[in-house]
Design a protein that fits this description.
single chain; 358 residues; alpha/beta; eight-stranded parallel beta barrel; four-stranded antiparallel sheet; 8 helices; globular
């Protein structure tokens, strides 16, 4: 059972704060958020600027809204080529193929032998240049940065049924190796960084790709400003302990990102219960370096302007130091409070928080 104690001695208004004990909020402006962005009043615009430190948006819909919300990231998939778009008709050779010459896909939303997105060959220099040119056009419209989805340094190439298939490497004519797959991705991400040195670049990654010190994974991290952890700390696949999917491995990955001067987004896109909501916030406060972000995609009602959870306005002040483990519990102390968190699969623990805490 996932249990935690979040002990608070003070709260405050949060979005502009940069204490490790306060929240920087990340809003994902999907189509169901259009009711707030379509024709917002000036007061609503100001509220979103105050409460959302960054917003993930989609072009061209959001292009005309950048004048009132400038801290927007534009979405772009790292290697998706849609079968119904002109680029595929013009450049079918950009799509990876199996040993029999069959087109391969990104394993997402597959049905009836096909998937909506072909898997592009990120090692192809022409594909990279086309991708970068398309991003340049979007950034010139005024976006603060780009959210690059599917920065997958683990295999994510499949047949039309979502089953993994090793592609043929067009440069060697043999099966592509995982090492080369990662190298092509790292080089591509570095080219994007070089092309847009002043843009904020966000990578949505597979945090449990191993080995942890793989040089291509480290190069990929270095090519970003933010690393997005989809599903956040409440990902149902995270288990207790130091295993491949362990909570302690998850924290170690975050430490590695921070050590390289990059920042984390806990993009909580699965949880929809109050316990999960509170657990995610506690985990965020444990790891927040003052520039990290948290999202609430799993229960979007708590991120909307008419239902924004007051817990995201917490301000515990500066941290006394990093998190540490005591009595089997992860703990971090702040000027105005204390955070304690029990990792998954561990027994229920009773904690004496001391005087002055709720």
């Amino acid at each position: 059972m996932l249990l935690f104690v979040l002990a608070m001695a003070a709260t405050g208004s949060g979005a502009e704060q940069r204490h490790a004990g306060s929240v920087r909020f990340f809003a994902h402006a999907k189509s169901d958020f259009d009711e707030w962005t379509k024709r917002p009043s000036e007061a609503q615009q100001a509220w979103m600027r105050e409460h959302y430190d960054r917003m993930l948006t989609y072009s061209p819909y959001f292009d005309s809204r950048l004048d009132w919300y400038p801290n927007a990231w534009v979405y772009k998939n790292a290697y998706a080529i849609h079968s119904d778009r002109a680029v595929f008709s013009k450049h079918p050779h950009w799509v990876l193929r199996d040993a029999k010459g069959r087109l391969l896909y990104i394993p997402f939303a597959c049905a009836a032998g096909s998937c909506p997105q072909f898997a592009a060959d990120v090692g192809n220099p022409d594909f990279r240049q086309w991708w970068i040119d398309g991003l340049r056009d979007k950034l010139e419209r005024g976006y603060t940065g780009v959210y690059v989805d599917d920065v997958n340094l683990d295999w994510r190439v499949s047949d039309g049924n979502g089953k993994h298939v090793k592609p043929i490497d067009p440069r060697t004519g043999a099966e592509m190796t995982l090492s080369d797959w990662r190298r092509y991705f790292a080089e591509f991400m570095e080219e994007i960084r070089s092309a847009f040195p002043d843009a904020e670049i966000i990578h949505n990654v597979i945090w449990y790709a191993t080995p942890a010190e793989d040089p291509y994974i480290l190069r990929q991290i270095d090519a970003a400003d933010y690393i997005n952890l989809e599903r956040g700390a409440t990902d149902s696949g995270i288990r207790g302990g130091p295993g491949k999917y362990g909570f302690e491995t998850f924290l170690a990955f975050i430490d590695r990102v921070h050590a390289r001067g990059r920042h984390i987004i806990l993009d909580d896109d699965e949880s929809n219960t109050l316990v999960e909501r509170d657990y995610e916030l506690a985990a965020y406060l444990l790891i927040n370096d003052g520039l990290d972000l948290i999202g609430a995609d799993g229960d979007r009602s708590r991120m909307n302007p008419d239902g924004f959870w007051t817990g995201y306005d917490v301000d515990l002040g500066d941290a006394d130091g990093p998190l540490f483990k005591t009595g089997g519990i992860f703990r971090r102390d702040f000027e105005c409070g204390r955070v304690l968190l029990n990792q998954p699969d561990m027994p229920t623990r009773t904690i004496d928080t001391g005087d002055g805490f709720a």
